[in-house]
Design a protein that fits this description.
- This protein has a single domain, classed as TspO/MBR protein (Ferritin), CATH 1.20.1260.100.
- By secondary structure, it is mostly helical.
- The chain is built from 7 helices and no strands.
- The longest helix is centred in the middle third of the chain and has 26 residues.
- The radius of gyration is 17 Å and the shape is elongated.
Length: about 160
């Protein structure tokens, strides 16, 4: 059986990550909703237009990182563990928007994002053991989720 070339794995993973992120955003509710607009927000709340480009970049980096791990030969239990952890953190990522915006539960969303942060860190550690570049590609994601965690916490505090 012929192996899939790395560039196709990257294209597949990036498209999949961005697509799932978009789906989560549409299912999750809108930051433009009257509920969200009525919330007290901290002074460091970025403008709404920042989130789309930021997440597009982050999902692209995540897709490239996952493709690099997928491309490692041969299959090993460490590779499988790393990819399963990546999928788990991605699923938790997809839960945050529906909890925060859809269910309008910022406190529960804070619990979700704290779990997400821990899973991202664990994924980075696993990826670094297999492919340094793959691990480094997830660092901006961890930084953004760290900021989002502070933002989520501030919204809980202010409301």
């Amino acid at each position: 059986m012929k192996s899939i070339p790395l560039y196709l794995k990257i294209i597949i993973c990036v498209i999949l990550c961005i697509s799932l992120g978009v789906v989560s955003g549409f299912v999750g509710g809108s930051p433009l909703s009257s509920w969200y607009q009525a919330l007290n927000k901290p002074f460091f709340q970025p403008p709404s237009w920042v989130f789309g480009p930021a997440w597009t970049l982050l999902y692209s980096l995540m897709g490239i990182a996952a493709a690099l791990i997928w491309d490692i030969n041969p299959d090993s239990s460490r590779k499988t563990k790393a990819l399963r952890l990546f999928i788990l953190q991605f699923l938790v990522n997809m839960i945050w928007s529906p909890v925060f915006f859809g269910l309008q539960m910022p406190s529960f969303a804070l619990v979700v994002i704290l779990l997400l942060w821990a899973l991202i860190l664990s994924t980075i550690i696993q990826f670094m053991r297999l492919h340094k570049t793959a691990g480094y590609l997830l660092l901006p994601y961890l930084a953004w989720v760290s900021f989002a965690t502070i933002l989520n916490g501030a919204i809980v505090y202010l409301n």
